[in-house]
Specification:
alpha/beta, TIM Barrel, 11 helices, 8 strands, globular, binds erythose-4-phosphate
């Protein structure tokens, strides 16, 4: 499973990239608002992220109609070769995805919550489909169970006949809130987990690692003082 970082924060991306495991970034309008981004600075911000990451960077179109989404998608994809246009799973989004995929533009269909949505996204030519986990948990439903249904259903088929450059669709486990979600997504065979930076840090940590290191440091002090 590949790790993407779910953030628009440049410092977080630089830090995660330095660890060597960062395969991509996903952003959304809320994440961009969180870093104080302005409309005018958005293209430059996405370009900066693209230069930092050796992998796909999802930038979301905010248009409502297919015409608006297609126009934005073209503009976003022109920013850098690793831009992936993120489009919500709606009727207008599917139509825009189909049009953009036909032009060879990679799309990540987001806000995906069901098996039919995921299959329609894949059939429209999306390169990535992003089932959301945590938002199901937020409404007291089992997000991991929903992710597992989507992974199982998509694995039944080969969508490379409609994809960009004959690549099959990849599942991005999104709305990840914990290291436990990461474990479960990996066991289900999600191609990618996109995780907030605080969750990525938690994925590195383990109390036995912390305690073991403290014991080694203490014992090394004894060695030094002999
Ligand atoms: C996906 O790409 C989204 O940016 C993200 O995972 C949403 O997560 P949230 O539910 O924590 O906002």
């Amino acid at each position: 499973m590949k790790f993407f970082l779910d953030t628009a924060d440049i410092a977080e991306i630089e830090e995660a990239a330095s660890w060597g495991a960062l395969a991509g970034v996903t952003t959304n309008p809320s994440l961009y608002a969180r870093v104080g981004g302005t409309l005018a600075a958005f293209p430059e911000h996405i370009s900066r992220i693209c230069a930092l990451v050796n992998g796909p960077v999802s930038a979301e179109a905010v248009g409502v109609t297919r015409e608006e989404i297609i126009r934005e998608g073209r503009e976003l994809s022109a920013l850098a070769s690793n831009v992936v246009v993120k489009i919500p799973t709606t009727v207008e989004g599917l139509a825009a995805t189909h049009a953009l995929a036909t032009e060879g533009i990679r799309v990540n269909m987001t806000l995906c919550f069901s098996v039919p949505q995921a299959i329609l996204a894949a059939r429209s030519g999306a390169r990535y489909v992003s089932p959301f986990v945590g938002r199901f948990d937020d409404i007291s439903e089992d997000g991991i169970e929903q992710l597992s249904l989507i992974i199982e259903a998509l694995a039944n088929y080969d969508f490379s006949d409609v994809g960009v450059a004959k690549e099959n669709v990849e599942v991005i486990a999104a709305s990840i809130r914990s290291a436990q979600h990461v474990t479960q997504a990996a066991l289900l065979g999600a191609d990618i987990a996109t995780v907030p930076f605080n969750v990525l840090k938690k994925c590195v940590e383990h109390p036995l690692t912390t305690n073991g290191l403290a014991a080694f440091e203490k014992d090394w002090e004894k060695v030094k003082n002999l």
